[in-house]
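Need the bound structure for zinc ion, inputs here:
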Amino acid sequence: MATKHAVEGLFAETANGPRLLGSRCATCSAPYFPKSPVCHNPECTESKIEDAEFGPTGKLWGFTFQVFPPPPPAKFDEPFKPYPMGFIDLDEGLRVLGQVTTDDMTKVAVDMPLELVIEHLYHDEDGNDVVTWKFKPAA
Amino acid sequence: MREVAAVGLGMHPWGKFEDKSVTELCRHAVEAALADAGAQWRDIEAVAAASSRFSGGKGWGLNGNDVVEDMGSTGVPVYNMSAGCSAGANAFNIGHMLVSSGAHDMVLVVGGEKMPKGFIQTSGVEEHTDPEFLRQRCIGMPGPAFWAVLSRRRMHDHGTTEEQMAKVAVKARKNGALNPNARYRKETNVEEVLKSALVVYPLHLFEICAVSDGAAAVVLCSAEKAKQLTTKPVWVGASAVATARFDDGITRGIGGMSPTGITHHSEAAAAVKKAMEGAGVGPKDIDFVELQDNTVYYELAFPEEFGLCEPGQSEWLLENNETIPTGKLPINPSGGFISFGEATTAQGLFQICEVGWQLRGESGERQVPNAKVGMCQTIGLGGNATAVVLKS
Ligand SMILES: [Zn+2]
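Answer from helper R.:
Posting the output first, comments after.
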């Protein structure tokens, strides 16, 4: 049994804690997640893409609850357990999608402060712990 | 540019038709549109068609070619337009240009679709470079979740209640019950809507459009030709197409720039603005609108984003019955996507047919009184959007 990323290259546990791995244009500061080889901002005068890390803090712009098992290619452990998810605006100017980890769904609220975590998503056929990025309520 | 008239409107009703092919659905719509125009198939000089990902088209989206082969191969040019749910009105845009430019005097626009069951899987590929795949695999977030997040944010911003959202569905189904082309023709009530399955909080089954089969067709022609064919042509005020802006606030993949202002659905707002400008009309001149209500949320958000009413005013209009056919701002007198379901690439054309029938005063019990100017709009995968203004 090992820990595997749901998709490689999107996030990492760094010396400073969990971060999303993306890029940013040095000219116009447009953020990209996942990484982009070029800047797509039509207002930008010169594409200068650099690696960038995003997170860990931000706030919840809007949310919903996934109440039924999502269709493929989503994967989850049986029995399915509903989860909150939403659009999170990170402090670095990146709006990212993600699940919100909480035991109490009634506590999920618009504008709540959140913190990036790397947590279990599902067990694959070989019993590996497959992890992804999620957000937990910030202390 | 020449004036263009919509002289033929035809539709196969929306529903689930296990025993009919998409070609049969299209033939029904095309024959109805030709009969409505008083024209023959051989009068059609060119065809602009919506490309489907789900049915017909030889797997290449060559749906216009299917129609031409079925109706009789006259050798006409065919333009197959791919634009997700905006394909129908995207084809209409090309058809309009073919006539307004003077290239052709009579053109057929057609869209037909048979949909697979269940939620639409937008791409269907398992590739790590595909944002749809990443969103579903890494986050477990299917498409309808977007509508839910937007809906919940609206509840926060404008105090919208779940009852108000249910009332949008009740209003839609009331109109649909009066429309022989709609799929859902039974009225509902707030209690029934809220008791229908919670698909993705806060949206219930009756508040989200189903997938349907259907086809619609429009015959466009020059003003000169229109005068020979009919005494009450419907004029194309403008047909506009736009795509999403880089700074749009709706994340199309799994991450993007946090928006600095309200720039949601930038493609839809841009298409509507272009269409109104092109037709020389303002929001006050629009007598009614057919808008893309994949879910009830859009019937509240879009009128505001399009400048048809003030931000936060939609719920008031709804509660005061101003969005019914006899109200100040009738929305979706056809019953909308909620009553039709979604035959993706044909949607824009069912809207155009409905607007045309309303302008001709032929919409029976769902008629908007004195309708002179009508608008319809679609928004589709890939950041595609369209808007059309028709005038009597
Ligand atoms: Zn740039």
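Comments: Chain A has one domain: 3-137. Residues 3-137 of chain A form one domain.
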